[in-house]
């Protein structure tokens, strides 16, 4: 996750670059249930409205939580499927809070009525993220349910009105990118304090539908918009926050923006971005799926490191006998193609390996989702890029204008 607003605030009011802080354990995104009342087009967990046998029982979840706590995991993001469809979600959440985890809830928001919002408030979640993939019809089409937008927006409002920190999570493709400005206006008008721009990863139905991914030029245009909005908020002293995810090239794109806009502060920003260090799948971000399988992050469900029913997470996570895990934990990662030649590998850390693997078969090849031009990554001679037309069906990339 890239905290865009935080860096912009620090550009506006410079703060010293502190030492590199090693988090105690990874943030764990935990898909407690795969069942979902929606069947979104891009869903990495390929969820649907059926029961999936073999999910962890309440007692098993509690046992895993004890292990995670002892392993010094600081944050649990409870997700799914739709986590509110799990009957014991509030029991699990209350225990997690009592154990002093930072607890986030990741929901599609459609099941949040006033009574549900009250229960969510009682738990005291530190953060509740709700997905909006467009305005009105666009969201409904994306999420394949008529009325889903209104339900999710209603849920956001009910939670906000109860003093809960809510955020809107927007997964961008070529089909909904045009809605981004309206969504930014919405979060501003509604006073939702956080906006998360999530780039598409080729996992689950997101892999099947990867031809819908935003083109590089589209992504660049939208990044210009979110940077402009976050900069305006930062300069006005607003607490509103924009974060991005699943494309660590965003940090390099921001650095180039700073070199043009506030050149005297760009080297300070560069130092901060290097300290952040880019993609942290398999290092500072972990995933446990509904069956208890452990993965390097949520987009790696096709690659399992072990199962918490038979081996504690605290043993699975540091084990680098798995070649993917060993590669992810290397610093710098041994990536090839444009990523290997990039002058900013120390910032981005090779971006999203799943996209590289899905397109080329090689988890260490260049990430085809990198939307930076050759010049922007410091390449003197143009490279033969992994052809995006391989996966874009009849759609072809327009050449980058820089
Ligand atoms: C799997 S959902 C689970 C929580 C809840 N059902 C929801 O939709 O918010 C978690 C988040 O991942 C996003 N997501 C799902 N598949 C994705 C993909 N292939 N690439 C990027 N984000 C994805 C969803 O849009 C959602 O914001
Ligand atoms: S993205 Fe969320 S709401 Fe959509 S199908 Fe997947 S789990 Fe359900």
Can you describe this structure in just a few lines?
By secondary structure, this protein is α/β, with parallel strands linked by helices. It contains 16 helices and ten strands.
Question: How does this structure look, described?
Answer:
Keywords: 4Fe-4S, Iron, Iron-sulfur, Metal-binding, S-adenosyl-L-methionine. Residues 22-236 form the Radical SAM core domain. The chain is built from 16 helices and ten strands. The protein is of the alpha/beta class and 402 residues long. Helix 1 crosses helix 9 (216-235) and helix 10 (249-261) packs antiparallel against helix 11. The protein has one domain (4-265, 280-322): TIM Barrel (Alpha-Beta Barrel). The protein has helices at residues 4-12, 58-70, 89-98, 114-123, 137-143, 148-161, 180-190, 205-208, 216-235, 249-261, 266-276, 313-316, 323-329, 337-341, 345-348, 353-360; strands at residues 27-31, 75-79, 102-107, 127-131, 166-172, 194-199, 241-245, 285-288, 293-295, 306-307. The longest helix is centred in the middle third of the chain and has 20 residues, at 216-235. It has a ten-stranded mixed sheet with strand order 7-6-5-4-3-2-1-8-9-10. Strand 2 (75-79), helix 3 (89-98) and strand 3 form a beta-alpha-beta unit. Iron/sulfur cluster binds at residues 36, 38-40, 43, 45, 47, 80-82, 108, 143.
The CATH class, by name, is: Alpha Beta
* Poorly predicted parts: 389-396
- What is the mean predicted local confidence, pLDDT? 94
Largest sheet: 10 strands, mixed
Give me the strand/helix succession.
HEHEHEHEHHEHEHHEHHEEEHHHHH
CATH topology call? TIM Barrel
Count of β-strands: 10
Strand arrangement in the largest pleated sheet: 7-6-5-4-3-2-1-8-9-10
Bound molecules: S-adenosylmethionine, iron/sulfur cluster
N-to-C span: 26 Å
**CATH superfamily label:** Aldolase class I
Shape category: globular
> Which class of secondary structure composition applies to the elements?
alpha/beta
CATH architecture: Alpha-Beta Barrel
Q: Evaluate the radius of gyration.
A: 20 Å
What is the number of helical segments per DSSP (H or I, 4+ residues)? 16
Proportion in helices: 25-40%
Whole-number count of domains: 1
Oligomeric form of this entry? single chain
């Amino acid at each position: 996750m890239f905290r865009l607003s935080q860096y912009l605030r620090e550009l506006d009011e410079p703060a010293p670059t502190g030492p590199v802080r090693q988090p105690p354990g990874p943030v764990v995104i935990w898909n407690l249930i795969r069942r979902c009342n929606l069947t979104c087009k891009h869903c990495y967990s390929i969820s649907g409205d059926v029961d999936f046998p073999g999910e962890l029982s309440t007692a098993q979840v509690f046992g895993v939580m004890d292990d995670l706590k002892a392993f010094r995991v600081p944050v649990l993001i409870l997700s799914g499927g739709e986590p509110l469809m799990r009957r014991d979600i509030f029991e699990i959440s209350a225990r997690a809070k009592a154990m002093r985890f930072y607890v986030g809830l990741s929901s599609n928001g459609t099941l949040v009525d006033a009574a549900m919002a009250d229960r969510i408030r009682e738990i005291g979640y530190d953060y509740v993220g709700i997905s909006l993939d467009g305005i009105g019809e666009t969201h409904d089409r994306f999420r394949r349910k008529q009325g889903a937008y209104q339900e999710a927006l209603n849920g956001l409002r009910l939670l906000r009105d109860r003093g809960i920190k809510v955020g809107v999570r927007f997964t961008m493709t070529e089909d909904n990118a045009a809605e981004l400005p309206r969504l930014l206006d919405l979060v501003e008008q509604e006073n939702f304090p956080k906006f998360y721009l999530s780039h598409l990863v080729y996992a689950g139905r997101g892999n099947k539908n990867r031809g819908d991914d935003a083109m590089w030029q589209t992504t660049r245009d939208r990044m210009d918009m979110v940077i402009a909005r976050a900069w305006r908020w930062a300069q006005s002293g607003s607490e509103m926050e924009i974060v991005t995810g699943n494309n660590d090239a965003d940090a390099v794109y921001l650095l180039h923006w700073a070199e043009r806009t506030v050149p005297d502060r760009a080297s300070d920003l560069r130092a901060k971005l290097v300290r952040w260090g880019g993609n942290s799948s398999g290092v500072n971000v972990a995933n446990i799926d509904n069956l208890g399988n452990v993965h390097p992050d949520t987009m790696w469900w096709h690659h399992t490191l072990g199962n918490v029913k038979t081996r504690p997470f605290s043993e699975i996570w540091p084990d680098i006998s798995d070649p993917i895990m060993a590669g992810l934990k290397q610093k710098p990662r041994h990536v090839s193609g444009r990523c290997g030649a990039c002058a900013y590998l120390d910032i981005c850390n090779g971006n999203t390996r799943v996209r590289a693997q899905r397109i080329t078969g090689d988890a260490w090849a260049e990430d085809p989702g990198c939307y930076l031009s050759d010049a922007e990554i410091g390449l003197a001679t143009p490279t033969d890029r992994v052809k995006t037309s391989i996966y874009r069906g009849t759609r072809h990339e327009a050449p980058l204008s820089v």
